[in-house]
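User: I'm preparing a small set of examples for a lab meeting where we compare how different chains pack in three dimensions. I only have the primary sequence for this one, and I'd like the structure in token form so I can line it up with the others. Please keep the answer compact; I'll paste it straight into my notes.
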Amino acid sequence: MAIDPRSKGTFLERLDQGPVIGDGGFVFALEKRGVVKAGPWTPEAVIEHPEAVRQLHTEFVRAGSDVCQAYTYYGSEDKLTNRGNHAGQYGVYKVNAAACEIAGSVAKPAGCLIAGGVGQIPAYLTTRDKEKVKAEVRKQLEVFKDYKVDLMISETCETVEEVEWHVEAIKEYMPGTPICASLCINEHTDIQGVPTGECGVRLVRAGADVVGVNCYFDPFQSINSVKKMIKAVKDAGLKAHFMTQPLAMWTPDAGVQGFIDLPEFPLAFEPRTITRFEAARYAREAFEAGIMFIGGCCGFESYHIRAVSEELSAERGGYLPANCTNWGKALELNTKPWVRVRAKREYWENLRPATGRIYSPTMSKPDDWGILPGDELAKQTSNVVSVEEELGDKIKSLIA
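Assistant: Understood. Below is the structure token output for the 400-residue chain.
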């Protein structure tokens, strides 16, 4: 039985009854709106531009999101102060508290759930020290515990090891809170070579209620990754729910580190953006694969989430978001007859959209520096350091 997405129920209760729709990407969307800096990607916009963050939450809720994830990505103290970033002046509690206030102001009136989130910790890249990483995570958790968020999401980490430590910290500090554990890995392995299916098993055994992938790869690559997790978890005799929050960009040419290795990252990805109809296909294929927490990450705008929500309307008790596309049905009202005939599903399902870029290649060659957590070049600092100072002669061979 599907559940009305606006009815009451805990996160896990809703997942037991039908698909739960997540929101889309904040970092890229807010960078394009001029309120987030590309590079540090830290969330001080919740203090400096709260109206922009609130508006984006509002757009996702109107599009059908059931969960508002507080915009706390890269909100750990060591990230806020990394490389001289001015966001450190606000402190981890103030930034994360502002994010929770904004998310709650939109979620609660709509009957949506509020998620807290922790991401990759610079301390992990620098030290791979479990206690140091957990200490940074706990600083963020203090806020989420105070605000009594409905669920926690550990996301956008490249290694299962780091997320296991996140899950452990959440279980210790916020017992009873549902935990989603999401890796940014491909269908083969994490960046340390742990098979994708095994990653899912390890996260469930660590205590995660929901496991899956987010960011770094396109929707259909991400579904394939989670399928590996689903099989491995079932084969291990374990139970869990599964999630996807992929890019809204095509990445067939990405290597193990995903879109960050592609030369277009991060400022020239627009030609790779998926259409709303591809977002709908993603939603259908994810649901049919057994994935119940379905959302988006970087590049997912509200119109993508609306397409996801619309596609799964029947599975969600008939709920439809505001101004749903209905495969272009409203085009019947257009003044041009050749546009009116496009008001049908078959047209948009079969369309192969052109890019208009006559000199653009189909794919790119990803960088392959092979730098892993703990390597000298992965170490982070709170000092302002130029690329030339940091890398010295090494940069010549790396970019040759």
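A couple of notes for your slides: The mean pLDDT is 93. Residues 313 and 319 are 5 Å apart (CA to CA).

User: Perfect, thanks.
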